[in-house]
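Morning run. Coffee first, then this:
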Amino acid sequence: MRASVAGIVAAATLGLLTADTLAADARTYTQLNLFGDAYDRVRRAYVEPVADEFLIRSAINGLLAALDPDSVFLTPKDYQDLLANKVRVYDGLGLEITMSEGVAAVVAPVDGGPAAVAGLRTGDLIVDINGTPVYGMNLTETIQALQGQPGTTADLVIVRQGSDPFRLALKREAVGEPQVTMRTRGNEGYVRIPYFTPNVLAQVTKSVNDLSARLGDNLEGIILDLRNTPGGSHEAALQVADAFLTEGPMMGIKGRAEGDSKTFNATPGDILNGRPMVVLIDGGTAGAAEIVAGALKDRGRAIALGTTTFKRGSAQSMVQMGDFGYVQLTTGYYVTPKGASIQNDGIVPETVVEPARVILPEDRFPRRTEATLRGALDIPAGGRQAVATEGAEVDYQLARAFDLLHALALVRQIAAN
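And here it is:
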């Protein structure tokens, strides 16, 4: 019985290992027999009968959970649910999470979703969902607990650094697909990517084309805002990076096996025609967003401004284990064109700018000018303009990014002349 159990476990949990690898370590068989003893003991003596399938699935889950949050076992139903929800992970609470020391850590909320409106932040820990402790759940189980029908409520217990734990009741919504937005400040353009959906390239291209049509040759460049962009499709991220790069490597994957390592190269064409770029990043810039920021920064296409990113740069492969299910296993790490590991180092900006609240003061004591002196000439109606500054709040990082972009445009103009 022990030998057959060890054989089942070896086939189920170590199917990716070669015979040479097993033969090279004689202790492997001894350890598998030890597991077989424990399995047999549970099967025969546990206080209640437990199905063999449950025990094996739990063993595989434990094996993968000990590696990293993204290595998981999926039943056939879990796998189908993953395919169905792959595009719309922002539905429900509009929240991207990862697992950290047994609890759920917020990567970043998605723009406009219930989590963003409620003020959840990068680094917040979710320790309880609807009265059930998160500790002991894997990533898939935690996501399933957070999801639900629109209109239902998720009661969360949040732990935030520097404050006492607090409860938060969030009503789930059918969050609309996050959309790329754009605007101008003077002759500078601004493009915000809230999430890397499969059609994000078309939205970014349209935004840049609209800016070009609006400003023409006066367009000095763009700010690409990836702050609190929690990720999305890695394929879409590579497409966006390629849109601004004309050649050379954009990103690579380094894996243990030769077949798991690859390099992604840019193709000719730059939708911005070489105009300057500033990419805004912070601790909520994760996954796919880090791929774009790393590619543009390392290739000298954009200057990164803000704070270091989330450090979420692992690549997974999916392997089917017969009819039993699927193993999603981390098989590589994303590296920037200069070889930096996103998982270990993140994307470190060249220009570090911490977030800050800047409140423009009320103009209680207006500056004296000739027009305010006694006997000054009358000014025709409409000749004097009031500037509203009362209580206006400034995005300090964005203001610095606009200043930097304008400076880059001036340097480019001087060099051209």
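Residues 8-16, 379-392 have pLDDT under 50 and may be disordered. Good start to the day.
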